[in-house]
Amino acid sequence: MKDIKIIPFIIIAITIVIWLGWKYFASEPSLSQSANQIAEIDQIITTLDKNGQFSGALLIAMKGEIIYKNAVGYADLMDSIPNTCDTKFRIASFTKPITAMLILQLVEEGKLKLDGKLTDYLPEFPKEKGESITIHQLLTHTAGITGESRIANLIDIEKEYYSRERLLNCIAEKELVYEPGKGREYSNFGYALLGLVIEEVSGKSYNAVLQEKICQPAGMKNTLEDVTAQPIENRAIGYNYNYFTGLEEASFLDMSFCLGAGQLLSTVEDLYLFDKALYSDKLLNEESKDLFFNSYGWHYQKCRIGKGLKRIRSNSLDGSINGFGSHTQRIEKDTVFIVALRNTKEYKRQIVIKWPDYMVSRILAVLYGEEYDLPKKSGAYAIFKEMIDSGKKEAENLSDKIMTKQTNSYYLNNREFRFFEEELKKKGMESQATDYRKIHEQIK
User: Closest Cα partner for 236 from 247, 244, 246?
Assistant: First the structure.
C-alpha cells in the first residue's frame, strides 16, 4: 500500500521536471533591446580586466552591424604595448573550420572528393594506412590518426621546425589508434594532413590558398599564417599564468608544427568579416554551407545564457594553444556574432584566467534579457596568494573579510581550495599547506 501512495508523488515530480525542461529548452530566448546594453557589456569587460581574468580583444555584432568592440590588457607585457582590436592573436583551433572550408571549396571545384582516399592526394603517405582513410574521416576526426595527448614527447617535438616533408613523416610514423571510421579521436595531426592535401591539390602554399579563396573575397586583411621566425606587425605575445609568480611568457611553439590545425593569426574584426561573408555566397555554395555547419566546420551547440538553465542554439568553437585562447559564437537566427581572442592562459585550470565563454555567457544574457552576475575572483586563489606572499595572518584576515561579506568580489569553491592545497604540497610548502587547509575548514 505504501508503494501505491508514493506513485502520485512520483508522477508529480516527473511532471515538474518535464515542465521545467519545457520552460527552459522548448523555446529559445529572443533578443532584448535596452538602452543600457552597451554600458552593461562594458561593465562586464571592465570587471574582467580589473580582476585580471581576461587580456585580449572582443567584438559583438548584431543584425550584421558591430555594436561593441574593445581590447584590454597587453599584447607585450615587457614593452607595455596594449592590446587593440587590430592586434593579431593566434586563433588556435578556429583554424580548423577555415581548413574545412578550403577543403569544401576544392570539392566544389572538382579537385577533391570527400570520399576520396588520402593516398589519392598524398601518395607518399604509407599505402597500408592511407588507402583506407578518407577526406571525410579526416574532417570528422574519425580517421584513426593519433591525438596529441598520446604523444609523450610533444612538448619537445613541437619546439622544432617542420618542413612539409618532415611533418608528413612525423604523422605517418605514428600507428593508427583504431581502424578508420570505427572510432573518433580529436586529432590536430589529422587536420595537418588536410593542410598538406590543400597544398598538394592546389599546387600553392596553404597561406596562398587562404588569401585567394577566403581572405580576399571576405575582405580579411589581417588573417594569415603565423611564421615563427618572421616579424609580423601587431602580433601579440602569449602568456601563461603561474600560480606562484604570475604571468610568464608561454612555452615556445614553432608554428610549422600546427599546419591546418592551429597556425593562423587573425583579429576580431577579420573574424567578424568571415562570419558576415557566410551570409552570402562569397565563400561557399548552399550545399557546402550545409556541410560546413552541420558536418565539418563550425558546428551547432546549445550554449548557456547567464545564470539560469536557458540555452541557445549557436555555432560555437573554443580554441586553445600555448598562451592563447579563442571563442566564437554565431547565432544565425538573430544574426548575432561574438568573438573573444585572448593572449593569457592558465596552464592547468580555469581559476585565475577565465575562458572566453565565461565572459560570453554574460554578454548573451545582456543581449537576450536574462539574469547574470558580474564576474568574481576566486577566493581560494586570493587566500592562497596571500598565504605565499604575506603569510598566514594576512591570509586569515582576507578569509575573514570574504566570510563576513566585507568584500563581495570573491566566490568560494571547495574544489579550488583542495587544488591549491595540493599545489603547495607539490612545492614542498607543507606548513603553508596545513595552514591553508585550516582556513578552508573554517570556511566550510
Answer: 247
